[in-house]
Amino acid sequence: MNKIVMPLLAVVLTACGPAKPTETVDELVANPARIKEIQRLCKEDRAKVGDELCLRAAAAAERRFFGERPEQKKTQ
């Protein structure tokens, strides 16, 4: 019985890690209110929100501001 309990306990404890953000940059671009909410939460407690979600919100805000612009050719 002990041989079954220990691996099962290891699997259960491994599953208890922090949840990964499920929101992609594209989803956030479509929802500007959510971007603002995440940015506010990141300012208040970045460790609780997580760096990955804060970075995704920043990338989404940048994409909304600048848009998907093609690179311009430099003239000489």
UniProtKB/TrEMBL annotation:
Domain of life of the source: Bacteria
PROSITE patterns: PROKAR_LIPOPROTEIN (PS51257)
Identification of the protein by name: Entry exclusion lipoprotein TrbK
Gene source species: Acidovorax soli
